[in-house]
């Protein structure tokens, strides 16, 4: 799989770097311009359009993915910086037969409306629960403060993360 | 619950939409990829007001990956340099003569991808001749103010319109009789809806068929199609607008933007699909802003607290083009509902609109056509009156609320409120919040010098435009179509003209139909947003979906159910008059449990049964619902804040909201809508502001400056409800989507002003940032120079 620019094209000579990235468990090779943002590699190069872009100043977090397990705003990382890294996106959360508890929690607690912030929220919340399986409401709000939502007023997102935490800890959701 | 349905489908806690969104499988406009698709980027003006001397695109055209560059001159040759707005003004698509606001569209580059397109923007050379900018609306009508709109024949100044409502004479009389009159200037600052997904389009002009297909962020896809037809000359039946999933709209995505038109023209020229997705800076600088109303309110009352009348003067800053998205005969939207929830003798308002060197807009951000401004005004004035009379603001409101027996109530400005039980909602709020305990706590804190505030807001919304007789958008009466088809196996497809941007229509509308037909919610699919596959209508904004399209969905379902009655009568060999509907079946009166379900009837309709006269071999119907009136949901809100006297930092400790939107189709979704609007209230009251400097430079162009609430600024909302059905809506439902955005800012501001009372602060304008609050405490409130003289 080859990516020259944001998508395959021919044209001006630009410096190209070959990178190897593992995305949702599958290793991909791509040829990219050094300036290509990771979010564009994911969205256009790999067709993983669940990761969204909501701003141009790294504030909104709609592009959040996990890079080597840590939540990263993929609009503020170059694709070349992900060379050799493990990247997880929202598409890798569920299997065809089973949703991740966070995805279930967001459905159960109405933690989404337009759905645009949801993938980034899910990835930030996943990082939180992996680090802190039983967070308090304040800890959840802090952990998600890098993710803007314009629809939900956040409360149901907090409840969704709590729901998922309970399920992951084996308690009654 | 309803006249016919039993409301059994009205309790769902699952949204159909979620399945794709939680998997990252939504389909938003920037997810659309077509073979050969090019990418557009917009060159924008760095100046607020300047003559264009020359535009040189030769270097950009020489870029190896650039396909074309579109200029205003090229558009002018096609008669497309200007486009009509929803307010019967015109707006420049690409500037030809002058630029009139910073961020205005000047040229459009089309390249192989978005990186190359952005590179090429740097290669365009525009020579500007700067002109003085009109930034302060109060200076717009000064005799020496530069005329912004010299493109308009006969336009000698920056005046757009004067509009008034109510009885000025009667107001003068009641003011003369009043014991007390309180006056206050206030600004509802310019803010922005800032949906998380910006605006964008993919335009695909097929040169062979002559068909134009457009994927875009359109809250009103049918209106967009009509405008494109008018602008391009492509016949309407060959234009298809598709709004797939939209990442929030909030009124930002009602109108047509220059970028959409440029992408369409670019696709015509290149004969390839063209995508244009704006970035956040472009969204904040150039798309529909909200508010920007400079208001002077006067309230008259007796010394016992009986409110007699209200008088308001407004100076409305509309920016450089009047592109306000509102019913065309209402240049100030529904600001006329500024009498609020109170039984007044007289009211009058006058609104003057002016051009300034700023982006166009005005009606957006869940405003229900300026009801945000109306509610903010009246709720601030009532609080100021309470201060003047030294009365409890809850008691003052309770004393003046319209009583339940007065509905339908005709306001002093000519609106007919459909239904309400205001005292019940207010009493419930005070009880839920523990109002008297809060006041006791506040008194104790004041003794210790701590600043705690309790703010109330009691609001009446006006949502669900039509009726079409009075209300039109772009010449289209505000009625909405619905089509329903029941398949032979008894499942159904509903097609509606509204367009969700997260409000859950796919679920709620399925519930409405399922409830009428006695089938499962999962057995109804909802189609919206594709103009080839949906009936005509004017879209989703102004909380009109449930009120108008929802009523259309119920109406069309009942039509189908009546068809089913005739077919069931044929099946049962009975007189249709002898049939009754219940428990999801048509049965002969008195023989419950027998009869036929919709699935059985649908099968028969498509089979070999002899059909009665006038019945086709199908179960399908269409309708256009023209509402007899708006719906008037209402609510009682209370906000508790703590203010740090040393820093001016406001913390919202509690927010209690009692909403009444009549019958709730899906309580889970209703609550989510309210949560959103309450967060909007925190944002507008405390953080959000699109500001300009004296040269017209836009100072809110990114999320670094335009601050939106995060999970940290929002408390856990405490919600309550009462149910006062709308008497004219088929299931008694009223709109709800914008109610909390309309009602909550006043509650927050009233709370902060209540907290600052010991400091002698009477009023300070939003946003109440730490700096603004600190200045108010020092007696140096910001923007006091904006009073209307």
Automatic annotation (TrEMBL), chain A:
Domain of life: Bacteria
Matching PANTHER family: OXIDOREDUCTASE WITH IRON-SULFUR SUBUNIT (PTHR44379)
Keyword Repeat: no
2Fe-2S ferredoxin-type domain mapped to chain residues: 17-93
Taxonomy of the source species: Bacteria, Bacillati, Actinomycetota, Actinomycetes, Pseudonocardiales
Molecular function via GO: 2 iron, 2 sulfur cluster binding; metal ion binding; oxidoreductase activity
Entry keyword set: 2Fe-2S, Iron, Iron-sulfur, Metal-binding, Oxidoreductase
Protein name: (2Fe-2S)-binding protein
Pathway the protein acts in: Alkaloid degradation; nicotine degradation
InterPro entries linked to this entry: 2Fe-2S-bd, 2Fe-2S-bd_dom_sf, 2Fe-2S_ferredoxin-like_sf, 2Fe-2S_ferredoxin-type, Beta-grasp_dom_sf, Diverse_Oxidoreductases
Native species: Thermocrispum agreste
């Amino acid at each position: 799989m080859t990516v020259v620019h944001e998508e395959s094209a021919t044209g001006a000579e630009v410096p190209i770097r070959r990178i190897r990235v593992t995305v949702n468990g599958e290793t991909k090779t791509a040829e990219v311009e050094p300036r290509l943002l990771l979010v564009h590699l994911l969205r256009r190069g790999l067709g993983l359009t669940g990761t969204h872009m909501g701003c141009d100043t790294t504030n909104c977090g709609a592009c959040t993915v996990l890079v080597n397990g840590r939540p990263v705003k993929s609009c503020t990382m170059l694709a070349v910086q992900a060379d050799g890294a493990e990247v997880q996106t929202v598409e890798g959360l569920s299997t065809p037969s089973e949703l991740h508890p966070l995805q279930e929690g967001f459905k159960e607690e109405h933690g989404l409306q337009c759905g645009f912030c949801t993938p980034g929220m899910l990835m930030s919340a996943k990082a939180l629960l992996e680090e802190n399986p039983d967070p308090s409401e304040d800890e959840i709000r802090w952990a998600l403060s890098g993710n803007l939502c314009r629809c939900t007023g956040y409360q149901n997102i907090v409840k969704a993360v709590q729901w998922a935490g309970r399920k992951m800890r084996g308690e009654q959701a | 619950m309803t006249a016919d349905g039993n409301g059994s489908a009205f309790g769902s806690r699952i949204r159909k939409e979620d399945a794709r969104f939680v998997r990252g499988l939504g389909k938003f406009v920037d997810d659309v990829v077509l073979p050969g698709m090019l990418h557009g980027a917009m060159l924008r003006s760095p100046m607020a007001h300047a003559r264009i001397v020359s535009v040189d695109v030769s270097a950009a055209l020489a870029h190896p990956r650039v396909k074309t560059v579109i200029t205003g001159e090229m558009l002018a040759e096609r008669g497309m340099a200007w486009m009509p707005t929803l307010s019967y003004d015109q707006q420049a698509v690409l500037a030809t003569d002058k630029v009139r606001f910073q961020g205005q569209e000047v040229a459009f580059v089309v390249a192989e991808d978005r990186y190359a397109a952005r590179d090429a923007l740097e290669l365009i050379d525009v020579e500007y001749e700067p002109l003085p900018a009109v930034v302060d609306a109060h200076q717009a009508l000064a005799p020496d103010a530069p005329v912004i709109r010299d493109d308009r024949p006969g336009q000698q100044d920056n005046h757009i319109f004067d509009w008034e409502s109510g009885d000025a004479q009667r107001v003068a009389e009641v003011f003369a009789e009043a014991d007390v009159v309180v006056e206050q200037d206030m600004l509802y600052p310019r803010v922005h809806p800032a949906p998380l997904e910006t605006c964008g389009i993919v335009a695909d002009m097929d040169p062979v068929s002559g068909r134009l297909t457009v994927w875009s962020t359109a809250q009103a896809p049918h209106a967009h199609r009509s405008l494109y037809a008018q602008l391009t000359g492509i016949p309407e039946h060959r234009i298809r607008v598709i709004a797939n999933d939209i990442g929030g709209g909030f009124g930002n995505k009602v109108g047509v933007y220059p970028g959409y038109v440029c992408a369409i023209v670019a696709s015509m020229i290149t004969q390839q699909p063209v995508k244009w997705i704006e970035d956040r800076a472009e969204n904040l600088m150039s798309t529909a802003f909200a508010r920007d109303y400079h208001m002077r309110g006067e309230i008259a009352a007796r010394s016992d607290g009986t409110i007699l009348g209200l008088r308001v003067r407004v100076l409305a800053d509309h920016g450089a083009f009047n592109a306000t998205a509102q019913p065309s005969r209402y240049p100030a939207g529904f600001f006329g509902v500024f009498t609020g929830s109170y039984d007044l003798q007289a009211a009058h308002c006058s609104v003057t609109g002016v051009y300034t060197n700023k982006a166009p807009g005005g009606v957006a951000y869940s405003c229900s056509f300026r009801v945000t401004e109306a509610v903010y005004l009246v709720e601030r004035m009532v609080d100021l009156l309470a201060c003047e009379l030294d009365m409890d603001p809850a008691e003052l409101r309770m004393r003046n609320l319209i009583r339940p027996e007065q509905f339908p109530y005709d306001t002093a400005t000519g609106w007919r409120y459909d239904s309400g039980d205001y005292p019940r909602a207010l009493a419930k709020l005070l009880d839920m919040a523990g109002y008297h305990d809060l006041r006791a706590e506040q008194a104790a804190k004041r003794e210790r010098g701590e600043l705690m505030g309790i703010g109330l807001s009691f609001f009446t919304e006006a949502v669900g435009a039509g009726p079409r007789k009075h209300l039109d958008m772009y010449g289209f009466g505000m009625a909405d179509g619905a089509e329903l088809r029941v398949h032979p196996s008894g499942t159904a497809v509903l097609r509606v003209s509204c367009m969700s941007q997260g409000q859950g229509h796919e679920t709620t509308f399925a519930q409405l139909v399922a409830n009428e037909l006695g089938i499962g919610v999962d057995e109804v699919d909802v189609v919206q947003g594709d103009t080839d596959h949906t009936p005509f209508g004017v879209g989703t904004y102004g909380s009109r979906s449930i009120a108008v399209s929802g009523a259309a969905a119920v109406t069309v379902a009942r039509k189908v159910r009546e068809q089913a009655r005739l077919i069931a009568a044929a099946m049962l060999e009975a007189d249709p008059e002898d049939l009754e509907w219940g428990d999801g079946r048509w049965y002969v009166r008195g023989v419950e449990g027998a009869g036929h379900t919709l699935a059985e009837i649908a099968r028969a309709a498509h089979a070999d049964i002899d059909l009665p006269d006038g019945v086709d071999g199908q179960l399908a119907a269409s309708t256009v619902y023209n509402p007899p009136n708006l719906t008037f949901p209402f609510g009682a809100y209370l906000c508790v804040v703590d203010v740090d006297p040393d820093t001016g930092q406001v913390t919202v400790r509690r927010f209690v909201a009692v909403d009444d939107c009549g019958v709730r189709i899906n309580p889970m979704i209703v609550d989510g809508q309210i949560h959103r609007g309450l967060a909007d209230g925190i944002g507008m009251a405390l953080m959000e502001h699109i500001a300009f400097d004296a040269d017209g430079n836009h100072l809110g162009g990114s999320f670094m400056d335009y601050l939106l609430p995060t999970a940290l600024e929002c408390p856990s909302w405490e919600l309550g409800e009462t149910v006062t059905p709308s008497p004219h809506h088929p299931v008694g439902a009223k709109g709800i989507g914008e109610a909390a955005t309309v009602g909550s800012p006043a509650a927050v501001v009233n709370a902060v002003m209540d907290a600052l009372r010991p400091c002698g602060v009477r009023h300070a304008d939003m946003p109440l940032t730490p700096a603004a609050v600190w200045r108010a405490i020092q007696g140096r409130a910001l923007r006091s120079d904006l009073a209307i003289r």
